[in-house]
Amino acid sequence: MRIRSFALAFGLCLVGGLCFARELIMPPDFTGLQKNMTAQEFQKAGLNKLTPEELAALDAWLTGQMKQREAAVAKAPRKDRDGFLEPGDEATVHSRILGEFHGWRGRTHFALENGQVWVQAEDGSLEGVNLTDPEVTITHGFMGDWKLKVKGYNSFIRVKRVK
Question: For the chain, first and last CA: distance in Å?
Fold first, then answer.
């Protein structure tokens, strides 16, 4: 009985610890520990000593924990490294480019009035522009990229935030 209790406690600690590691959250099609572990892993964890009822209870508990963590991860604000998004930040930046603006070509840097600095992240050019402190909008794209658009122009360029 003592060995069984120890094995259950050890199994709960082991499995619970795995659930906390974000990279190791089990897939939604989780079918139980025995089917998701090798026989050697299952035995090493002492789970082979559990009765079928105890194993079913452990699997049910684990499934509930995974669902709670998946829900928490889904609700958590997404941190975006390239745009330096922080929780509560908008995924659209409205500002002005400081000073004279003559379009973009190559690796153009865009110093904004709000203190951010962005750099052109793809080939392309916008020529024939001669503006002072133009308004810009930088939006977060569907695929995780950022796009800068100058007010009054029907062109945009992919950018990456550097400051």
Answer: 61
